[in-house]
Amino acid sequence: MFYADRGAIRQEIASLVAVFHPGVRYIKWVVEYNVTLEELIEREKEAREIRAREADWEFIKSQPPRLRIALEFYVETGDLYVAAKIAGITVEEFNELRIKARIPHVN
């Protein structure tokens, strides 16, 4: 497809990213850093694998349900803000919990 303006390109990328990956925050990477959507999905998969491998699952499973679910969500997505909202605590408090659970912050 040919687009006359960059706004139309961004809109098309936004719709593609929303379909293939719920993390629409990756639009910036696709547009500004010239990274393909496949590369972004692969990076996210690698980050998820690292978080899952390094996490202290015994600690995570010993937490109350709300915190356990939030920690599991963070392992899957890497989204600190949403995980903190799920846990019902501040981002700073959740980050401390993440460290106790030995879940690395992977970019």
From TrEMBL:
<protein>
    <submittedName>
        <fullName>PaREP6</fullName>
    </submittedName>
</protein>
